[in-house]
Amino acid sequence: MVSQFGNPSGFVGRMVLKGMNNGHARLTDWGLAYVSESKPASILDIGCGGGMLIGKIGKLFPEAKIQGMDISDESVKATRKNNADLVAASRLKVVVGSADALPFEKETFNLITAVETYFFWPNLEKCFADAYETLAVGGTFLVVSEAYPHPDFDKRNKKYADKYGIRIRENDDMVRMLKNCGFSVEMHTVPEKNWVAFIAKKG
After folding, report:
1. b/e string for 32-48 if b means 16 or more Cβ within 10 A?
2. What is the pTM of this model?
3. Which residues of 137-168 are buried (b: 16+ CB within 10 A; e: fewer)?
4. Where does residue 68 rank: exposed (0-12), middle (13-18), buried (19+ CB within 10 A)?
5. What is the pLDDT of residue 57?
6. Pairing with 125, which of 19, 132, 181, 184 sits 20 to 30 Å away (CA)?
7. What is the CB neighbour count within 10 angstroms for residue 194?
8. How are beta strands 65-70 and 42-46 bridged, if at all?
9. Which residues pair with 66 in a beta bridge?
10. 3-state secondary structure of 84
11. What is the pLDDT at residue 109?
12. DSSP assignment, residue 181?
């Protein structure tokens, strides 16, 4: 069952994706508020899951071309289905791929999003470095999570880690790795909810 969260498949995977779309909506809205004033022409969503975030950015940035990517075939299918209007308008393409080997040219995107996904990624700093290379100069890499280490949430976060097979990183470690890759970083939290957003800029 743990693998269904990191790489959904089959009927169970489809149910997991539906739950993720519903469960992450408010967190996603909060994170997107930090980039809502930008005007990206090209956007990549890493770990697109069921495509909820892509639907939101399609409306938020009506002129943008969007690329979704996920390690799961089921996620790719769900994202296409749930955003059929964007596909039909030739605004959305979705591919299978891994965060540590992004299948895109350098400096392709003005905005890269990663919501509720970094903790599944292997070799996290390598993933951040790939995002940096794929991001255009002046672009933003938005990383959002509903959990970070904090004494008030340790019990819950341990349950998350055990249930979903994730590794929740210290905020300072996240900032350090992003900076090591060349980003300048702003961090925002909602302590009472244990939410965190990293707004990492290139150039």
Report:
1. bebbeebebebbbbbbb
2. 0.90
3. eebbbbbbbbbbebeebeeebeebeeebbbeb
4. buried
5. 97
6. 19
7. 18
8. parallel
9. 43, 92
10. helix
11. 99
12. T
Tokens linked to 34: 């930090």
- Cα 133 to its chain centre, rounded Å, is 17
Instruction: Indicate the pLDDT class of residue 111, thresholds 50, 70 and 90.
Output: very high
Asked if residues 184 and 163 have their Cβ atoms less than 8 Å apart, the reply is: no
Residue keyed to tokens 């089959």: 10
DSSP 176: H
* pLDDT > 90? residue 1: no
* Higher local confidence (pLDDT), 21 or 202: 202
17 or 178, greater pLDDT:
178
What CA–CA distances, in Å, run from 38 to 6, 42, 60, 110? 30, 11, 10, 9
List domains and CATH numbers for the chain.
Answer: 2-201 (3.40.50.150)
φ, ψ for residue 35 (rounded to 5)? -125, 10
SS3 138: strand
Query: In 10 A of CB 75, how many CB atoms?
Result: 27
Instruction: Concatenate the DSSP letters of all residues of 3-47 into one string.
Output: HHHHS--HHHHHHHHHHHHHHTHHHHHHHHTTTTT---SEEEEES
Q: What is the pLDDT of residues 168-185, one digit of tens each?
A: 999 999 999 999 999 999
Neighbours of 114 (CB within 10 A): 25
